[in-house]
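dumping this here so i dont lose it
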């Protein structure tokens, strides 16, 4: 196996172990597209983990800075990051600026900064999850308009993932929501559902690989509908779906996207 092949395989293994939902979504796309998505999602996983690498914010931010520097070098000079997945990232140079922006947004995770209001949470989700979906579009040659729509979709899907993570974040001493009133949570969920629907409609004529970049958000509609209907569950159980619902939802999304 070539160095590139080994790097792609390492990226796939990291996603399978650390992000099983995104792994399942990637397995639902054509095989030739997966080699471009595995390293993207593996990099996202490493970036997301960096702020939790130490209880000391400065140490955690140093870990995160390594990724910022490596991805900037990739974006600006095409340099391969010195990492197990580095070779697999080189063909994704067009997506590197979006990963840099994502990594920069993760700095607030190092310092446990609460969100001042819903707008600040929305901005964070756009800069993290939104930029990841934007990067997936860039990988497949989406134009700027389509990338912007994918970013909106990603921010809305990111809220669903954030809701699911709330119990763990609370257990770690974080304050993940700017408002905990049920009506505030319901309002956020309904607004995100509208964004998902608008993004799908906007991309209905986009090339198939660009549409498939939305697949990792397959659980978002069900999670957000549940949050809108039973907002008290956000802090209680993270709105986890049954295995049947997960599998059926992914199958339906893969067939209709």
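and the seq i came up w/
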């Amino acid at each position: 196996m070539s160095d590139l092949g080994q790097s792609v395989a390492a990226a796939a293994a990291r996603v399978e172990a650390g992000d099983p939902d995104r792994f399942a979504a990637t397995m639902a796309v054509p095989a030739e597209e997966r080699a471009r998505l595995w390293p993207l999602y593996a990099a996202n996983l490493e970036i997301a983990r960096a702020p939790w690498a130490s209880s000391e914010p400065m140490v955690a931010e140093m870990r995160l800075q390594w990724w910022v520097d490596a991805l900037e070098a990739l974006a600006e000079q095409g340099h391969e990051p010195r990492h197990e997945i580095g070779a697999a990232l080189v063909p994704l140079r067009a997506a590197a600026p979006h990963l840099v922006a994502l990594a920069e947004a993760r700095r607030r995770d190092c310092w446990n900064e609460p969100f001042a209001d819903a707008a600040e949470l929305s901005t964070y989700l756009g800069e993290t999850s939104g930029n990841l979906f934007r990067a997936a579009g860039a990988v497949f040659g989406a134009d700027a308009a389509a990338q912007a729509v994918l970013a909106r979709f990603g921010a809305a899907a990111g809220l669903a993932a954030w809701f699911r993570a709330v119990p763990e974040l609370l257990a770690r001493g974080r304050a993940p929501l700017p408002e905990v009133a049920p009506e505030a949570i319901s309002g956020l969920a309904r607004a995100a559902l509208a964004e998902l629907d608008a993004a799908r409609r906007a991309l209905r004529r986009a090339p198939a690989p660009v549409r498939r970049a939305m697949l990792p958000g397959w659980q978002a509609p069900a999670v957000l509908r549940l949050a809108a209907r039973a907002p008290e569950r956000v802090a209680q159980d993270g709105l986890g779906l049954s295995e049947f619902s997960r599998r059926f939802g992914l199958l339906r999304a893969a067939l209709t996207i």
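The chain has a mean pLDDT of 94.
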